[in-house]
Amino acid sequence: MKIHIKRININNSNLNYYFNIIYKFRNNPEYLRLNNIKRVSKKDSKKWFLKNQDNRIFFLIKYENRNAGIFNFNKLNPTFSQVILKKFRNKKIGKISATLLLKKLKKLGYFRLITFASKNNIASYKIHKSISYNFKPHKNKNKFYKFYINTRNF
Known about the structure:
The protein is α+β, with helices and mostly antiparallel strands.
């Protein structure tokens, strides 16, 4: 199985190309439903993206050279989110790519991370539970859990 993650290096010449990819993943209907969040307009998303791109690292999840998902890593508050397209689920892509991400973040000097997953999103919840050393219910979000990860373990 060929799974790897590719860091997106955004510059002026490819900004629109990568923004469109990120936008599609962010507004994936299944992702929105599973995480109980609302669709974001393209205009609002572009404003957010331009304002926050220096504080983020995006990684495309590649499966057999096709875009299967994406990671959005926040450098200021070391957290990440992951989206896997529905047609690529149940192939262990999520868990394998999460492990690859943690190894890359370790090399970049990020050791203590936090991430969140809803108990309603069973696959995501299981992945996060398997890569974390501790977790607890998130105070402000019903059915969401906060996971603590140490990349030194990867």
